[in-house]
């Protein structure tokens, strides 16, 4: 069948915002079918007037049969009229229709997939609904033995008609509020990949809901019971029939990370983040203790590097007690929880205190851009996570390839619409530098770590003293800063009791390198950064998170 898509809007007494919805859908060039699921006379009258204006197709059911039944009627009509896909859009106006082009692009590139909205909520979402959705999310992860489906209740999705109707002929699918979740789980079991793509969702004032608290909650409970029991009885078949994601065309800019690659480390971070959100940090510290002990026992090199660094730091810092590398690992775990708590909204600006006259808020109100050299001491990530949206848009973070990909995936797990800009260090070329120079001239900031050497063996490094012995530092930050011709700052963010203490210090108004002896100039700046790094490494040795031999 030639790909052809139909916008399907099931409605039961929802018509107040249909004019706006129909205008947006028609502007996107889609044919429209509305299924009136036994609405009252007011809605019927509104639909008649709207049909004169927009000339959409209409199915009117005599009595209310449920959302799932309405969608099923729409599927049958779509197939009979030559449509290969159905774009289900709820009639209550909760979904941001500006994402229509992104969804249609995913549909054209991945016609075999079910493409579903990954809701991004604002503060208007009722707490009761938020809690209820979390319970469903957890059950779906158990039932599918996967984290691929990050939200199964969003009524904004594109179905492949053929596979959906085939499923409905062979399985008993609920016809009311249990429909969305049940059909998605069964399609996933049958090998249909589910692509999650972010869409903003609001709960406008005066919006009416067709959700029956008692009956629909009971339907959803019995649905999850059946799905769970089915999973227990058929789990070998479910695992053998996993959807194939490697053949899909998935641009990271418009998809949730769960639609990409299902790697164990990312899944672990994802699970930990939701535990942090639901249980709180203190309980997560207890729950995660066995995991920390396991990694401490299994990772000999990291444990050895920790012991080596702590011994050096304690000796130079004249500390009386003995270093504890296990505590070092737990400190890293606590830092990870702080980071996740920031991204999930558990911690905020109230937890940040500045230990210097300079603050990011004051600096970023200026029209002058700058470069920020950071390190793997403390939790600079926390500051980026809680930064306001305008500041995030003005940050351009340079990361190494492996880390940048994981970082993007992590951001999508907690903030699918994050405006933070990430650039892979190995992709930096003259065009990238010109772009960054233009952005800095407009007031943006470039962020780069100064305590990691280049990934490539032939990368440029400079050797300077650090904690009593020569250590290699990358020349990259100082070369980049000289090309950007902007002020350069150094910063750390360390945990100090219950707060995050931020230290911000200017390295230079502008880095100028001597053309005749460039390496000597770079060594001078690297030595300043090395001294800055050493000061905080000695003050906060357990917050040094370079778990490798820094002097090797």
Structure, briefly:
By secondary structure, the chain is of the alpha/beta class.
How would you explain this protein's 3D organization?
By secondary structure, the protein is an alpha/beta fold. It folds into two domains: 5-258, Spore Coat Polysaccharide Biosynthesis Protein SpsA, Chain A; 349-543, no CATH class. Helix content is 47%, strand content 18%. The protein is built from 20 helices and 16 strands. The N and C termini lie far apart (61 Å). The model has no long low-confidence stretch (mean pLDDT 83).
What is the secondary structure topology, with strand pairs?
Blueprint: E1 5-11, H1 18-27, E2 31-37, H2 41-54, E3 57-61, H3 67-80, E4 85-89, H4 100-109, E5 114-121, H5 127-144, E6 156-160, H6 161-170, H7 179-189, E7 194-201, H8 213-240, H9 264-279, H10 281-287, H11 289-298, H12 300-316, H13 325-343, E8 352-354, H14 360-364, E9 370-374, H15 380-386, H16 389-393, E10 395-399, H17 401-414, E11 421-424, H18 430-441, E12 445-449, E13 461-466, E14 469-474, H19 476-484, E15 488-496, E16 499-508, H20 518-539
Parallel strand pairs: 1-2, 1-4, 2-3, 5-7, 8-16, 9-12, 9-15, 10-11, 10-12
Antiparallel strand pairs: 4-6, 5-6, 13-14, 15-16
Helix pairs in contact: 3-6, 5-7, 5-8, 9-10, 9-17, 11-13, 12-13, 13-15
The total domain count is 2
- The percent of residues in helical segments reads 40-55%
pLDDT averaged residue by residue:
83
Return residue spans where pLDDT drops below 50 for at least 5 consecutive residues.
none
Give the biggest sheet: 7 strands, mixed
- Portion of residues in beta strands equals 15-25%
Kindly report the CATH topology of the largest domain: Spore Coat Polysaccharide Biosynthesis Protein SpsA, Chain A
How many individual helices? 20
Helix/strand/pairing class, anyone? alpha/beta
Strand arrangement within the widest β-sheet reads: 3-2-1-4-6-5-7
Question: What CATH architecture of the largest domain do you see?
Answer: Alpha-Beta Complex
Tertiary shape? elongated
CATH class identity of the largest domain: Alpha Beta
Number of strands: 16
Computed CA radius of gyration, to the nearest angstrom: 27 Å
Report the end-to-end length measured between terminal Cα atoms: 61 Å
CATH superfamily of the largest domain: Spore Coat Polysaccharide Biosynthesis Protein SpsA, Chain A
